[in-house]
Structure formats: structure tokens, C-alpha cells
Amino acid sequence: SAAWFLATCRDPRFRDVEKALICSTKAVEFAKKAGNLYHTAAYLDTLAGAYAEKGDFEKAVEVETEAYNLALDKNSGIKLESLNSFKELIEVYRSRRTYAQWKYGEKSTKR
Is the pTM of this model over 0.85? Predict the structure, then answer.
């Protein structure tokens, strides 16, 4: 999604955390209203990535944990691979690293 790109793009010149937060927050709201567990979990994952990029790692852990817990629901349609990714990202954010730092080996910036 555009929000994921804005939050986690490999090239930091294209990241815009504020836009990512706005887009993913709205997406979560719409998915929750629709009762769609799959999309809610996916958009929460994106929102967590945006919070981490912003440097709010506590909120990133909270939101990623919510995504993980939704994904545990057998009716969510989330595949095991995504479930494992959510779980791994909880630990990444607990260690105060962004997705880009974890996935691309990006050097830590002041946070």
C-alpha cells in the first residue's frame, strides 16, 4: 500500500512518516468498521511501521501486538508467514529499530 511505502521505503528520500500515519490510521478505521480482520491486521502492521519510523517504538509495539492478536483469530485469513512476521516485528520494535533498520540494515539515526 502507499502507506507502507511511505513508512518503510528502502530509499529514505521517499519516506513521509506523517502521511503514512494519516493513511494507515484511516485504513485501520475503515477496515475495523467493515469488520474485516484480515485488512485490519494488515493496516495495523503498516501503522506500527509508521510509528517506529517516527521513533515512537512503544506505540509501534502496541499496534503491532494488536495486529498479531487479530491475526491469531482463525477467521482472519492471515497466513502463518504473516503471523510470524508480525511476531518478529514486535521484537524489532521492542529493540528500538525501524523496519528499514531491520530489513535493509539501515544505520540508526537519532531517535
Answer: yes
